[in-house]
Amino acid sequence: SNVTYRIYDYDRRDAKGRPRDLHISQALDVTRLTRPVITDHSPHLVACPYFTVDRVCAGEKSDACAAGVSVGADVPAEAAVSGAAGVSSGADTCAAGAMSGAAGAVTGTVVETSFLSVRIIGGEGTLSLPDTGGTYPCRPGDSFFLPASSGSWTLTGTAEALLTRVP
Length: 167
What we know:
Layout: H1 24-29, E1 46-47, E2 52-57, H2 63-66, E3 87-89, E4 105-110, E5 116-122, E6 125-129, E7 134-138, E8 143-146, E9 151-157, E10 160-165
Antiparallel strand pairs: 1-2, 2-10, 3-4, 4-9, 5-8, 5-10, 6-7, 6-9
């Protein structure tokens, strides 16, 4: 929408020095005043028709990681490994269920049906892209975009990450 209703204006004045009009009643007319319904998106942190977000942890399980949700189902048939977004885990990480992979690593394959956005939210590690030869150190705040069909990847170290993809 391109409509803006002013509900507070920090006591700003118009060109003639008068307080600017507020639009309280109009804003209330278009505001939802009910609490949103909390939805469990398991096995994802967030899932909608447009994207999913999963939390994964390389290395040992931490208290912060233990609070995360598991990754597992809803994988395109062409994914090369099990897990959401083609994610597998061999370490005792956030990922639950029967998954395979090297201890202390999270691995996956970016298939042709989706990109993969990797956002590092904790710990430190290395993101390796064996199909392209890239190896990148990572720490909290780092973000990586892996285009569709970019192949396999591995996250090692103690890194915790959010993985975003198209379902």
